[in-house]
Amino acid sequence: MEINTKLFISVICTSFFTFQLLFYFVSYWFSAKVSPGFNSLSFEKKIEWNSRVVSTCHSLVVGIFGLYIFLFDEPTKTDPLWGGPSLANVNIAIASGYLISDLSILILYWKVIGDKFFIIHHCASLYAYYLVLKNGVLVYVGNYRLLAELSSPFVNQRWFFEALKYPKFSKAIVINGILMTVVFFIVRIASMLPHYGFMYSVYGTEPYKRLGVLIQLSWVISCVVLDVMNVMWMIKISKGCIKVISHIKQEKAKNSLQNGKLD
Question: Cα separation of 12 and 53, whole Å?
Answer without folding.
Answer: 19
